[in-house]
Every structure is written in C-alpha cells, then in structure tokens.
Design a protein that fits this description.
By secondary structure, the protein is an alpha+beta fold. The chain is 51% helix and 13% strand.
Length: 110
C-alpha cells in the first residue's frame, strides 16, 4: 500500500520558512526597510529603490499588503494619492531589519 502523506498545517511549517515566505525575495526587505522611517508614496519608494521596476515594486507592495505587513491608504484627491506604511506586524519586523543592517556593517568592516 502507498503511504498517504498528511497535508502540511501551519503548525508543521518551520518558523524560518514562514518568515522568509512573508519577507523574502529581492524587493520586499528593501520596501520594508524604506518604510521604517515613515509612510511613503509609490514614487518615493521608487526613488529610494532605484533598481526596482514599477512592476516588481507593485508586486512587492501588493504581497506585503496581502500579508498585512504594510497598509495602503488611498486619499481621494486629484490626482489620487496612495500612501504605504508599516502595520503593527510590519513594525514588529523593525528589530530584525536593524539587526540585518548591523550584521552587514560588522561583516563589511572586517
């Protein structure tokens, strides 16, 4: 008889894997890091992350919003103003981002 594997549940997934799935990728950490010092408009994020394409920035923002790490506030004016900010869950990642910065600084200073 073939053995049947049980589907993975949230409890059986490695916590590191869960975190990486939420904040991993090339652009998500940059977006999160650039929102640490306050809310930003799309164009501000583009300027701060010059190598990201519009498409990839939009994708990263949508995924982070879907995972409740950032909020997207639309202000009805002409033209429409959209502001992105860290949510409480996003704010809870700030110490991790700061640790990454410090680790890199130490590593590069060797």
């Amino acid at each position: 008889m073939d053995s049947v594997q049980k589907p993975e549940t949230k409890a059986t997934i490695c916590p590191v894997e869960q975190t990486v799935s939420l904040i991993g990728g090339k652009w998500k950490p940059y977006v999160l890091f650039n929102l640490v010092d306050g809310p930003k408009r799309f164009s501000e994020l583009q300027r701060q992350i010059p190598d990201v394409s519009d498409r990839m920035l939009t994708r990263a923002l949508r995924e982070l919003e879907a995972d409740h790490l950032i909020s997207r506030d639309v202000i009805a004016q002409v033209p429409v103003k959209v502001i992105y900010a860290l949510t409480a869950d996003g704010q809870s990642l700030v110490p991790i981002l700061e640790t990454m910065v410090e680790w890199t600084k130490r590593r590069l200073s060797r």
